[in-house]
Every structure is written in C-alpha cells, then in structure tokens.
C-alpha cells in the first residue's frame, strides 16, 4: 500500500490513475479503524480498480475541544488493517496543509442542519462538508463509501455533491454491529469496561421503539425510550427522534406505509454515541 501525505502528491497520483482508465473507490475516515470501516473498504475493493482510504481527524468538525483531543489515534494499527483488506492508497494529510487558506466557506444545508446532529453539534456539518469537498477534489473518486451509522452525514454529503456538482457516486453502507448490538464506532474505544457493557442500551432502545411503531403514537414511543434509558442510571439521552429517512425531519405521526428512521444520540459517561435504524412499516 502506498502512503501519501502531501496534497500535491495525491493529486498527481490520482490524475495518473484516472487518465489510465482506473475506477477509483474512496473511503474517507478519521482512523482508529474497526470492522465497520473495513467492510466499507472491502466493498470498495470489490467494486473499483483502486481503493483509497483517507485518515484525517478533521479539527473543523469537532464542536467539543475535548472530543477532538481525546479522539482515538492508532495509525500503525490502521496501516496494518488497511493492508489486510487490500487498500491501495492511504492518504493521511496534515491539518496545516489542508487548512492553509482561511476563512472557511460557510455552507447552508437548510432544515437538514437544524435537527439532531446539526442542532446538537453547532458547526459540525460545515466542517464535514468542508473536508469532504476538499477530499473529493484531492482524490477525485468515481465512488465514495459512507456508513449508515452517520445517516444525517450521508444526507449532508448527498446535498453537497448535488449543490457543487461533484461527479461522485455515493454508496451508503449498512451499520456494522458488535455481537451485543452496539454499533461499531471509533469512540467505543474510549468506553471503560463498565460503560462498554451498558452501551448496547442505545440499540436496545431503538429496538423497543421499533416494536411500538404503528401501535402507539410517536410521543408515547419517545416517552418509553426516555424512561428506558433513564432507568439505566448511566446513560444521558441527548435526543431520540422518529424521522423521515431522506429529509431527517422529525415526524409527529407515522402512516401505515411509511419508512422511518429511528435516530438516537446519548452520552455514556463522557462519550457521546449515536445510532439509528431504518424501519419499513410496510414490511410488517
Ligand atoms: N459501524 C459502522 N458500520 C458502517 N460504517 C461505519 C460504522 N462506523 C463508522 N462507519 C463509517 O465509516 C466512515 C468513517 O467514520 P469515522 O472514521 O468517523 O468512524 P466512526 O466509527 O464513525 O467514529 P466516530 O463515530 O467515533 O467518529 C463514516 O462514513 C462512517 O459512517
Ligand atoms: C466523513 C468524515 C471522514 C469527514 O471527516 C467523517 O465525518 C467521518 O469519519 O464520518
Ligand atoms: N463519524 C462522524 C464523525 C464525527 O462524529 O465527528
């Protein structure tokens, strides 16, 4: 695997590959790789001629300085994992070069950024859109792979691609979970053993809500989830929403034919985790 750190070098390399007719698959990450990332990379390796992974803990998308400081960084182990799944190129740029020009562009994603992650992490999606846009320019992928775990991020990137006319096909990959249901996430590495044991309650709460969908009104389902998590005594709920899976806008009512996204964010100790599931009521 080639490891490239400089923007000029990745641009040149990708230009050459594109000119020789190679199809480029791209998996942007912040590192501390786990099986969720590896599945995205395997899908890319299968569906493209060349797979590029980026590892960059992007400072502009962190609204909480401690979260940035404590974000797990495991570069040596990441390189070994990338080699094990046949990744061709790792792009690991430096913040000084990525953010050489200031100030940052301000994006506007309308209603998408006023709910859930947008509401609770001010500036987060502006940082995500900025870095994803830059990475798309550097890597020039034909396809880019994103996880459903960050469902709202996928919608933001989709809007970014449409608004700025990037010629990139987006692939949304299902959430990969631990055996006990916990969605894999780099931040799981920050959980102590007791917190790790309790963390699957986020997923359990989503399952509980799913069972009640179509039977009970949305406000009552929300109350059930709140009471369930409060009962654990160790998890602080930030939000639970029943949302439209495309617009991510909260739904007050759910129709019999509807597909909905059940989305949750909660603190386990000082670690903030998110999760979601998609439910199609039509499928019984
Ligand atoms: N469990 C998972 N299943 C599928 N895709 C995932 C999973 N976890 C992360 N991804 C995807 O991998 C890409 C890189 O994510 P990132 O590096 O932020 O990792 P992460 O595990 O989401 O970390 P964290 O949530 O702690 O920031 C994103 O598109 C993300 O949605
Ligand atoms: C897409 C991304 C790599 C941008 O920094 C990040 O938000 C992530 O890892 O999901
Ligand atoms: N996986 C989303 C990136 C973030 O939480 O900042």
Structural features, described:
It is a single chain. The protein has 284 residues and is an alpha/beta fold. It folds into two domains: 2-173, Rossmann fold (3-Layer(aba) Sandwich), CATH 3.40.50; 186-276, Pantoate-beta-alanine ligase, C-terminal domain (Pantoate--beta-alanine Ligase, Chain: A,domain 2). 40% of the residues lie in helices and 20% in strands. It is built from eleven helices and nine strands. The chain has helices at 7-19, 35-47, 65-70, 75-84, 95-98, 116-120, 124-139, 151-163, 193-198, 201-212, 218-232, and strands at residues 2-4, 24-29, 50-55, 89-91, 143-147, 169-173, 235-243, 259-268, 271-280. A six-stranded parallel β-sheet has the order 1-4-3-2-5-6, with helices on both faces. Helix 7 packs across helix 8 and helix 10 runs antiparallel to helix 11 (218-232). The mean pLDDT is 97. Adenosine-5'-triphosphate (ATP) is lined by residues 29-30, 36-37, 40, 146-147, 149-150, 173, 175-176, 183-187. Its EC number is 6.3.2.1. ATP binds at residues 30-37, 147-150, 176, 184-187.
Which CATH architecture of the largest domain would you pick?
A: 3-Layer(aba) Sandwich
Distance between the termini: 46 Å
CATH superfamily of the largest domain: HUPs
β-strand number: 9
GO cellular component, one term: cytosol
Pfam families: Pantoate_ligase
GO molecular function: ATP binding; pantoate-beta-alanine ligase activity
Keywords: ATP-binding, Cytoplasm, Ligase, Nucleotide-binding, Pantothenate biosynthesis
Structure described in brief:
It catalyses: (R)-pantoate + beta-alanine + ATP = (R)-pantothenate + AMP + diphosphate + H(+). The chain is an alpha/beta fold and 284 residues long.
